[in-house]
Amino acid sequence: MDFASYDDSYSEYSDLRRSFHSEEVPRDTSESQCSSQDWSWHWSPPKPNSISSAPRRRRQPSPTIVKRRRLAANARERRRMNGLNEAFDRLREVIPTIGADHKLSKFETLQMAQTYIAALGDLLERSSR
């Protein structure tokens, strides 16, 4: 990443970028030859705002916005779970089962998948000998 390509007037870390290009960076950084003064260019956190040091309070969103956000989050979770259930259904179709009289649970599906993968691995290992 080229730090010189960024505009210094918009960054609160411009001093940090300049320090990477300055001449005060020690050339040999082995522990035996470095003093604490050599590391004077290290990063320090930005200074707090001089206008007000008290933490800002965020306004609570209106009940309508809260409800919309909750509905959107519920819809996203529903989509995620539907995708997961579809993936389990596809996995159930591929895994051989002893009886087709009941649908395997998610846990049973994962156990059967592990067993099936291990059996296929053993089969490949035996056939390569």
TrEMBL record:
Keyword Acetylation annotated: no
BHLH domain ranges (all copies): 68-120
Basic residues: bias regions: 55-69
Cross-referenced SUPFAM superfamilies: HLH, helix-loop-helix DNA-binding domain
Listed GO MF terms: DNA-binding transcription factor activity, RNA polymerase II-specific; E-box binding; protein heterodimerization activity
Localization annotation: Nucleus
GO CC term (a single one): nucleus
BP-aspect Gene Ontology terms: axon development; positive regulation of transcription by RNA polymerase II; sensory organ precursor cell fate determination
Signal peptide span: none
Source species, domain of life: Eukaryota
Pfam families registered for this protein in UniProt: HLH
UniProt keywords, alphabetically: Developmental protein, Differentiation, Neurogenesis, Nucleus, Transcription, Transcription regulation
Compositional bias per record (Low complexity), positions renumbered to this chain: 1-13
Biased composition (Basic and acidic residues): 14-30
Stretch list, region Disordered: 1-69
Record protein name field: Cousin of atonal
Native organism: Aquarius paludum (Water strider)
